[in-house]
Amino acid sequence: MSGRYVGQSVSRNEDARLLTGHALFVDDVRLEGMLHVAFVRSDHAHAILHSVDVSAALERPGVVAVYTAADLGDYWRPGPLLVPPPPIEGIVFNQATQVPLAKDRVRHAGEPIAMVVAESRYIAEDALADIVVDAEPLEVVADLEAALGPDAPIIHPQLGTNLAAHVVQRHGDYAAAKERAAVVVSRRFHYDRGASAAIENRAVAARWDAQAQEMTIWDTTQAPIPIRNGLAAMLGLMQSQVRVVAPFVGGGFGPKIMMFYPEEVLVPWAAMKLGRPVKWTEDRQENFYATTQERGQVHDAEMALDADGRILGIQDSFFHDTGAYDPYGLTVPINSQCTLLGPYDVPSYEAEFRAVFTNRITVTPVRGAGRQHGVFVMERLLDLAAREIGISAAEIRRRNYIVQDDFPHDHKILFQDFQPLVYDSGNYRPALETALELIRWDAFPAEKAAAAAEGRRLGIGIVSYVEGTGIGPYEGARVTVEPNGRVRVATGLGTQGQGHYTAFAQIVAEALDVDVENVNVVTGDTREFNWGTGTFASRGAVVAGSACHAAAVKVREKVIEVSARILNVNEGEIELSNGTARVRSNPGHSITLGDLAMRANPLRGGVTPGTEPGLECTAYFGPDRGSTASGVHAVVVEVDAETAMARFLRYVVVHDCGKLINPMLVEGQVQGGVAQGIGNAWFEKLVYDDNGQLMNASFADYLLPTSLDVPDVSMSHRETPAPMNTLGLKGVGEAGCIPTGAAFAQALEDALSDYDIEVTEIPLSPNQLFEMLRHAPRRAANTNPGTEARA
Amino acid sequence: MIVDGEFTFSAPRHSVWTLLQDPDVLVKAMPGAQRLITTGDGTYEGTVRIGVGPVTAAQWTLFVALHDRDEPKRYMMKVDTKGPLGFTRGSASVELSDEGEGGTTMRYHADLQIGGKVAGIGQRLLDQVAKQLTRKGLEALSREMELRLKLSLGGASASFAVGTSAVVDGELVGAADGDAVDDAEIQNPESGDAPESATASSADGDAAGDTAAHPVEPLAEVASPDSPLPPGLASDPAPVDDLDSRLPPGTV
Lengths: 791, 252
Known about the structure:
Chain A is an alpha+beta fold.
């Protein structure tokens, strides 16, 4: 389906409201009698909590209540395990989930210890200083390998170990592959990530209406329906008594799909207990401690190749930092493990990881969700092998891509959706060739030489990746034609700026042949739609979009059936056009969809038994597995070897995300993803000291790239339609940020090819690069075959 | 975080040793110190008010315990501060050696762990701030020491009694001195506009700028009746004249 709307860059339906201040964000919620919340948070990364004295805080005027773990009674319990471990043979998994308020022990700096409810946030924050916490510091677990050593302090004594999980997946026979290999490359890699730094921090507001016995919760969540279900159960209410609204949300990027955060669990409880609306809004500094983030892995990886640079096998063993708790299971490290394979044919794979508890903030998915780590390892191994063999970075990738007729391609290991990792479709070589063209790869040696003559150092890099998207379990949508002719679409997931209000409207408008501006989309309100999971893993457009399409198609069938009856013709003679249903051979004989909707809902008389009233249908889409998107990133950087400052000059993304609903929205996703990728490669790093203290909990020291640091991305789109859904869609939400670190590393090495350096760690900083250059031996200029041999 | 260095006092080693452990002296010297009392032999408790860069000044409780004392050569300290903005914990060593004509060089080395909010947003400034606080503190300590020694020589100049803390009949009188490091709210050092506008204490006792005189506890609280005192201090606050008796003979 592509025509009037789908495939067009339609302007966004929601922008007028957003830009004129008519969009509701959670902090905009102001209710009469509303109280405000601040939390006492642990200063220590690991400590025994002996006592919390709140008496002075209670004396402060304006303070309405102060709660500690003891005050919660039965309500206090560890949160649910959101993602159970996948059914991998031999898996070891130790569950430890976050608690609403620390009881005997604190396990990371920033963990909430007490909740103050007051007439204003100012008073609540002042009251924090009144509260005396008696904490006995314990030794801190900071290093991943040491955490598993015999002398390490144990963060969860009931587990007896700091090992959160041990997973081994394999296919083929790596040992045999290594025997036959002509080239073996092995290295240790460090890949670290950071905070998602959404422009809107988290917030929760709740109102308990005791007369109606209804709870309304406004929450900046990416998953309103699961939150509704979980909180209803915790509060002892029926699901139908609880309404969760995720209104406009200023960016999600992953941490807002983490569920049952302490604040989420406590604010509604307090609202019920106090009989007044309660609101908590996070400030930026709090966000660094209170909201989850992604962090590092240490990989020991090895690749065995034949003399032509064909991969015979890969072995990878890594440590994954999961932070103080592991409520999100193993999604992130499994993604790393699986996404490492990339678009390449890897006959043997021996993959192992250990997830480790540390005394740092909990790790849950951030845009990319662990894929970055795996991609970095694979792409770096390929680059190192290419250098040894004497072929270019582009050529080694060409030689290893899965070929077009080898789909579906089964890697024989399990993915994050518990399904076998099977690539449904893909066509990788053409994307590479397009990217080479767009970045002007062939002309680059000349460009580089010309720049060198001016004293400037340029470097080029090209990398490839695949991304599993559009996974289940399912989403649903309800499409309704209202008597005024406007169409209402409701779906269960939430929106954080992706443009769902427009993309879904386009799909429905096309199916019903109505004006896209006459389609109203509602997302993120559990009262509007009751079933669904949430916005994550680049699945919104694919899964909810497909459900919208299915529902719209059913409505279309109803329109044809009812209008045929009313217009007294055969169904085959009906066509939909511009908001009306008409007889094809006699277009004047027509009825508007609005009138039809009214006629389909009579107030008097009989109906044919079995008829449903109105023009409304609900449909669900649940794939048994995801669809595989893929892409190639190419980048040109400039480096100053004296100051170790680097900048991105050109950035090319060639991506295949199946059919595009709205090219403009896709471009936005990719450009934004690249900005976050550049941040991850060169600017952003959460710095913890050995005592688990976060040292840069503000944007003064946690650096975000600015518009000056991010070039305009040149994009090209390829389409291998997804066979798993009618529209042929694949996800693209995370595509922009996945291989950036790997591309940057390759380009840096190319720019500094006369230094003997290897980039095996991301993010890098100018300081680190400076030290690397200072200690690096020089070699003859430009002996890097990556740029010489441009096969 | 490591804070180390050395400082030379123009006072003899025994005086320096004693005065370094005198809470009354320390409370005036420590930037932002509001209160410091002895809680035991070599243990102290107090409150200081300090801010760091973007972290506004707040009150911290301070616990210090001296140990491994080798009079008058060296001692060790355990330090603990706690406040709404975080905590610091650590230890320090202090070594004294004679220097030139009746002077003393103090070498100090502190290893502190910083945690909480101040660690998260004060990081870039912590080193500089620690150095500044230390320097100002030592300078103020030095001035206080000189003052005491001069006073002990018979109250030579009346001007010293004006606007400076003096011990009279067991009670502390007078506002805090012109030492402008009271209520140390140290702004970004690079901007050069630290609220202390005078680094030298002014004899007329004007507090500089917006730094208010900090309330100083009457000396009666310095020593609690039940706890042993550091050596050299009488159980009642000594009137000025008796300072003589604490100094080694021949001290200038």
